[in-house]
Amino acid sequence: MNLRSECYSSCYLAGGTHLIPHWRTVERPPELVINLKRVAPWNTDDLVNTSWLTPLATISDLQKHMFSHPGFSGLSTAAREFGAPLIEPLATVTGNLAAARSNCALAAPLITLAAKVHYVSIVGSGHVSVDDLFEKPGCTTLPHGALITAIEIPTPPPNSHGAHLSLRGGTTSSPLIVAASTLVELNDDGTVRGGRLSITNAASTPREVIAAQEILRAHTRLDDIVGDLGQAAADAADPDDDRWGSAKYRKRMTRVVTERLIKSIASIPTTEVATQ
Fold first, then answer.
1. Residues 6+ apart with CB under 8 A from 69
2. Which residues of 37-73 are buried (b: 16+ CB within 10 A; e: fewer)?
């Protein structure tokens, strides 16, 4: 941390799947690169458990971990759909978040799970929720030179189910157009009692759909609020035009993806959710 703070043109390197290609396209790469893989205490066999991800936990590590609670289904799906097999053993979860890109693949499910990012810096240590982590594209709310030490993932509530759905511009490895994640809490009779919804690549940074929290406390059938949640997601979206689609198209697809996502949970038999 002292090296990072003393040299402004420096950065941490864990997986490097985003940073190294980026450096090849810029005129002035960092003057100092700090390789976190040489931090001995972090090179352990237990990189992922139910509640914690270490700084060097990769996408492959996340894929291999068996999350038994159905509330983790959205995170498991996002990890499986992350990218090319050659990238997944190198790309770290913390690096994916720290890059603070609008298409951050794992941010949406981690937001719905109320995950926290723990960090240390020269001014002290602390934690911040993932939904408060992103300030703007390429910039987090962490102090300058802060080092992420862990990601804490609380166990989802009983009778809850997570899901994640993404839309890509072609094959499963094509660039992301928009994605949505949700964690829905259900009563034994199948009515909804709470939950969260978040979207990725539908705005400058991943974000939670705040209005969805009230909608998901309606104590009604999930089928009855599919349209309301889809509209709330579209209202929260603020995308830009790019080569894969206009802002208008991406906003419309945010609603479509969200509605399909909610329908996928609504189709789960009530008895199956209640017993999980």
1. 50, 155, 156, 160, 276
2. eeeeebeeeebbeeeebbbbbbbbbbeebebeebbbb
Check residue 100 and report its DSSP letter: T
User: What are the chain's domains?
Assistant: 39-152 (3.30.465.10), 160-274 (3.30.390.50)
Return d(Cα 77, Cα 67) in angstroms, integer. Answer: 11
> What is the Cα–Cα distance from 166 to 181, expressed in whole angstroms?
9
Please write the tens of the pLDDT for every residue from 76-133: 999 988 877 777 877 888 888 988 888 888 999 999 999 999 998 888 899 999 999 9
| pTM listed for this prediction | 0.84
Contact status, residue 107 vs residue 134, Cβ threshold 8 Å: yes
